[in-house]
Amino acid sequence: MKRWTCVEAGCSYELTAEDVPSAVEGAQRHIAEEHRSFELEEMIEDVLEDVSEPHGIDLYDSR
Amino acid sequence: MATTDHQHLDPSVVGKFHFTRELIEGPVYRKYQKAIRKFWSVEDLDFTQDALDWGAIDDEQKRGLLGVTVRFLAGEQNVTNELVPMLAAAQALRRFDWTVYLGTFLMEEAKHAEFFMRWHKEVVGVLEPEEVAQHFLVRGKTIDPSGRFEVRDVLHEALPYYGRRLLETTLEGTEAEIERAFVAFSAAYNAFVEGVLTMPSYEIVIDTTTSWNAFPTLRQGFRLILMDEGRHITFGTYACRLLIEKDPSYEDEVHRVFDAYRGNIVGLVEYQKAVPGLDLDKYQQMKVRHYKNRCREMGVTPDETLIEQILDPSIDFVVGVEAG
């Protein structure tokens, strides 16, 4: 499992995904929808953390 | 043919070969492979619609857009010119994967310069240095009324400075000195210029051309360039991370670079304020995200005072821009 945390000012969103492509897709969707911006694939991949269990309020998403 | 008996091999012959299984499975070599797979060519782009759109916008819109694109035209040529010290240092540090990847990096910077050259030639009708220079917004006209911050020309001042230091150290210095100079150069080039300062400018152009429903090829070019830039930035921050893990005192170099050019980050500079009607607060917010991300990638602690200053609405530079 892979975890990504948003570091936009005032945002504490994090998501957990089964693999790297899913984490990239989820992170890019969050940045586009919540911050009207974009995040590059490499920049997401480089800060993904390995986690053993899904984390967050619902299964994959902290919202 | 394979053998496990390597004892008779001459080390000077073995030293002529650099590929290893670990190298080709590593993150930097993967960036090289991705750069090859994702190759794109300026020659495949069609500037016809952008030229029509240029004829349809008013003079204020032209001034605003050109203020940003001419900056990119100069900037991409400059970063192409300034990359050699990093290549030389990679060789000196015996990082063959870095050297291989930097080959694609340099080609991509040249291609980005080519893209802006072609866009200005085909769309605006300017190409010669004297033609484009008249649209370059002069940095000296951007001032902080409080006098706390100086807005310097990081691209044309810091990169040559840190590049010369890296090149001289590569020729004369110890391995540790080269590593330290590499961190400073990469912090300036990849983390500061590419990874924080310029990111809002990409969004400004994409947001502007989207809201105008115009210049599809300029927007397409920016998206293609950003794909490459993602690799450039994360190569530099990854290299910094590796070196800082080896000697944590190198982290000071990162903070010194960001501190020296703090004024360029805390406010929006002239070309970033040139397009009318944009939500400028958004670009300050995203600048914080990019700064924190670069710190996260490099494994360094963000400077909280810098973050507070970026978000401080009282820090607002006065832009008395003049075409230069």
Describe the structure.
The complex is a heterodimer of chains A (63) and B (324). Chain A has 63 residues and is an alpha+beta fold. Chain A has helices spanning 20-35, 41-45, and strands spanning 2-5, 14-17, 49-50. Chain A has one domain. Chain A has a 3-stranded antiparallel sheet, with helices on one face. The longest helix of chain A is centred in the middle third of the chain and has 16 residues, at 20-35. The mean pLDDT of chain A is 86. Chain B has a single domain (57-319), classed as Ribonucleotide Reductase, subunit A. Chain B contains 16 helices and 2 strands. Chain B has helices spanning 11-14, 21-24, 27-37, 48-56, 59-81, 84-92, 96-124, 129-133, 154-172, 175-197, 199-211, 216-246, 251-260, 262-266, 280-298, 304-311; strands at residues 142-143, 318-319. Chain B has a two-stranded antiparallel ribbon with strand order 1-2. The longest helix of chain B has 31 residues, at 216-246. The A-B interface holds A 6-9, 35-38, 40-43, 45-47 and B 31, 203, 226-227, 229-231, 233-234, 237-238, 282, 285-286, 288-289, 292-293, 296-297, 307, 311.
Tell me the layout of helices and strands.
The complex is a heterodimer of chains A (63) and B (324).
Chain A: E1 2-5, E2 14-17, H1 20-35, H2 41-45, E3 49-50
Chain B: H1 11-14, H2 21-24, H3 27-37, H4 48-56, H5 59-81, H6 84-92, H7 96-124, H8 129-133, E1 142-143, H9 154-172, H10 175-197, H11 199-211, H12 216-246, H13 251-260, H14 262-266, H15 280-298, H16 304-311, E2 318-319
Query: What is the count of DSSP helices of chain A, taking H or I runs of 4+ residues?
Result: 2
Most extensive interface, residues per chain? A-B, 15 and 22 residues
Number of helices of chain B: 16
Question: What is the number of strand segments of chain B?
Answer: 2
The number of distinct structural domains of chain A comes to 1
> What portion of residues of chain A belong to β-strands?
15-25%
Main sheet properties of chain B: 2 strands, antiparallel
In the sheet with the most strands of chain B, the strands line up as 1-2
Low-confidence stretches of chain B: none
The CATH class assignment of chain B is Mainly Alpha
Largest sheet of chain A: 3 strands, antiparallel
Distance between the termini of chain A: 18 Å
CATH architecture heading of chain B = Orthogonal Bundle
Order of helices and strands of chain B: HHHHHHHHEHHHHHHHHE
Look at the helices and sheets of chain B and give the structural class: mainly alpha
Rg of chain B, rounded, reads 21 Å
Multimeric status of the protein:
heterodimer
